[in-house]
Amino acid sequence: MVSEQKTWIVFDTNFLMIQGGKGISYSSFEFSQDFDSIKEFIELHDLSEKIELATPKIVIEELKTARIYYYREDSKSMENKFKSFSDLDSALLSIPRTNPDYKALLERLIDAHLDKVKIRIIDHPPEKCFKSILNRAIDKQRPFIVTDNHSDYGFKDVVLWESILNHNGLGSYGKVILMTGDKKAFDDKCSYEFESKFGIPISIYRSKGRALEEISKYYDVVLEHTEYLKFAKSNYFRETLEFNLTSKNKITLDDEELEIKEYSIIDQFISLTEEKDESNEKTGSYIITSMIKVYFEENGTEREGEVNVETCIDEDRDVQYIRYEPDLI
Fold first, then answer.
1. Residues 186, 154: Cα–Cα separation, whole Å
2. Average pLDDT per run of 10 along the chain, which is 329 residues long?
3. CA angle 128, 134, 139 (to 5 degrees)
4. How far, in Å, CA of 217 to CA of 223, rounded?
5. Among 55, 106, 162, 246, which is disulfide-ready with 11 (CB 3.0 to 4.6 Å)?
């Protein structure tokens, strides 16, 4: 049975950050590909109303700090490389300089991206939580941990955790998922604390695959359909429909062939179903149902009508046939 309860997915820094600063474009701001994959999955399966994405404010601040660090390091490295050529008489090189206004630019880029991906920002824990944070540090309670090299390892994780625990509105969710690469800090003790306080299950994953599996089970989604849905909602499929329509000149109504004047695609994707043969056995292919509007003339009167379209695609997403009802020829 499909769950009607909402899910809250919270992202830690190490899940959102493009690892090691590799592949960073300093003129834009993005989250990791894993985040993009989860968001795309949610949108493909029409789960945006049931799943909310969120991240604590301290995560955004940490991402900002890391980006500025990488920017300064790369600027310094680039400047040093240019200097090694600048003394050549024939060199026509302008040594790049660090942009002193990059921090302000970055803040604008971050704000724009947050607005684009529609992720909720969880406020810092209130001041009253300082005692709780202090006690975690003193008693080394999770997610605060001690390692051989760091006696204060996990302070950011504590702030992140307290931000979640003190967020208003958790009662409106049936499930919480925390995406983090730090399973050592966020262990079963954290899960027990959360579930004891709110009576809501929380799953802690470092793998997007595990998260997507849980979402699929919770909302009765067939994971294998994802690539077919992606195809059905793509520009390529829309172009395929449009190209096929260019060869259709008439619509058949009551055994009469009427000339088509114009057409428009109302909805390129309505549903996706597995094709079955006459014995009701699955063929391995899928049927994409679409809807188009056709404009034609009948007895001197301009008319319009909706046409149901069924496109059959195989496992490689190659089109096997396209059928129209009423028929187009």
1. 10
2. 81 87 80 95 94 96 91 82 66 61 92 96 84 64 56 73 92 94 85 94 94 94 90 96 95 92 96 92 95 92 95 95 96
3. 135
4. 9
5. 55
Read off the amino acid at residue 286: Y
Within 13 Å of residue 238, how many CA atoms lie on the same side as its CB? Answer: 11
318-328 as b/e: b if 16+ CB within 10 A: eeeebebeeeb
What the block records as the tokens of 31 is 């989250």
Q: What's the sign of the alpha-carbon dihedral 211, 216, 217, 223?
A: negative
Give the closest residue to 312 by CA, choosing from 256, 232, 216, 253.
232
Question: Which residues are registered as beta bridge partners of 9?
Answer: 53, 177
φ and ψ at 81, to 5 degrees? -65, -40
CA dist., res. 132 & res. 146, Å (int): 17
Query: CA 33, CA 240: separation in Å to the nearest integer?
Result: 28
* Contact present, 51 and 215 (Cβ < 8 Å): yes
Report the C-alpha gap between 292 and 267 in whole angstroms: 7
What is the reported pLDDT for 152?
46
Cβ–Cβ < 8 Å for 173, 8? yes
Q: Name the residue ranges covered by the structural domains of the chain.
A: 6-221, 227-325
| Rounded-to-integer distance, Cα 88 and Cα 132, Å | 61
R_g (Cα) of the chain, nearest Å: 27
Asked whether the beta carbons of 315 and 296 are under 8 A apart, the reply is no
Cα(278)–Cα(247) distance, integer angstroms: 29
Q: Which two tokens stand for residue 92?
A: 């026509």
pLDDT of 137 reads 60
Q: Are 275 and 312 in contact (CB under 8 A)?
A: yes
Contact 66, 164 (CB under 8 A): no
85: helix, coil or strand?
Answer: helix
What's the full length of the chain, in residues?
329
